[in-house]
Amino acid sequence: MRKFNLRHIFLDTDEEKITYHTVLFSLGIVLAICTVATSVSLILDNTGIGKENLLMIFLIGVLLSTIITPGYVYGFLTSIISVFLCNYFFTEPKFTFRIYSREDILLLVFFLITALVGGYLSARSRRQAALARQSEKNAQIMYEERNKIALAIESERLKSTLLRSVSHDIRTPLTGIMGASSIIIENFPSLDENAVKGLARDINEESARLISTVQNILDMTRITEGKLSLKKDFEAVDDLITQVISRVPFLTNQNRLKVKIPDEIILVEVDGKLFVQVLFNLLDNAYKHTDKNVDVVLYVRTDKDQIIFEVSDNGKGIDESIRDTLFDSFVTLPGHSADKGRGVGLGLSICKAIVSAHGGKITAENNKDGGASFTVKLPYKEE
User: Fold this and answer.
1) pLDDT of residue 224
2) What pLDDT, in 10s, does the model give residues 272-298?
3) CA gap 22, 9 in Å, rounded
């Protein structure tokens, strides 16, 4: 409950301070309202309007005083002054403070009561409106604070997820590299040529996966900081595909990758390094989420003012539970955690950001005969 004190008498708010300037200004408003109400009443009194109607003018003045001035006391003061003015100018005998008529006494008493109650209610309504505005402001502040807290919690969760994922996705290929290299070092004299080639192939594959993980993390850092800048140039599609194939030995060594590109030379204006990363992420995603006997196809074609890159497979397709959030960050299959499977969950979100920066579009859908297709469409102008 709000305590009643001097501040609440002179000011109808807790935030302002009582100053002589505020008080004098409010008293000036009271005197001005009383002067105007008296002048108007004197003019109307000459036209024969009764005292009851003239009192309404003073009542309006009381309400205006309560609305304009910042405290209860000014409305109360206006009411008292109005009673004396009505008595002096409009009751018999006029121009004195004596009253002969009992009706005039009752009329002034009722006027005073009505003015005080009306002024109090008006001031109270304004006070409640001010409190409502303050409550709304406080609620907005609390809402913003809750959002900040929720954002901080989500940020910490994402950091934790990223650290777990990165630690696993870096540790796993490094473990493979160390294991294969240790076998070569310790058993080299007893290893035949095929065994050495197999271990070297394993080292190559794990190194490619490690480079991909680090590159994805660097790209995501640049994207989140708004520092993703394109260095576009005309690149031959054949060269882009060659660079991608050299980075996916885990697919080419198993003869799982099929490439279909036009026979003619096609130039596309892209940032070569970033776009190779897009195609690599799509092929790596297909490799991670399909079985060893599933074929992966990289198909390139042109269609009017677009060049289309499509990565498809004949596996199980996209899980429905993640279909709508497939291109968000840290999206993985249900039951998949950073400590149980490969993938930070950044590859597809990075693809979307890079493709969008090129003015293109990336989509994903399940094939009718099984498997999934990821399609990248970029603007293309045939030279």
Assistant:
1) 65
2) 888 998 998 899 888 888 888 888 999
3) 13
pLDDT at 75: 77
Which pLDDT score is estimated for 225? 64
pLDDT in tens, 10-22: 455 444 455 677 7
* The token pair that represents 61 in the structure block: 């003045």
The model's pLDDT over 184-236, given as tens digits with 9 standing for 90+, comes to 888 888 888 888 888 888 888 788 778 877 776 777 677 666 667 788 899 99
**In 3D, which of 83, 101, 85, 105 has the Cα closest to residue 93?**
101
Query: Cα Rg for the chain, rounded, in angstroms?
Result: 41
Asked if residue 283 lies in contact with residue 318, where contact means CB atoms within 8 angstroms, the answer is: no
Compute CA distances 376 → 204, 279, 309, 345, whole Å: 28, 9, 5, 19
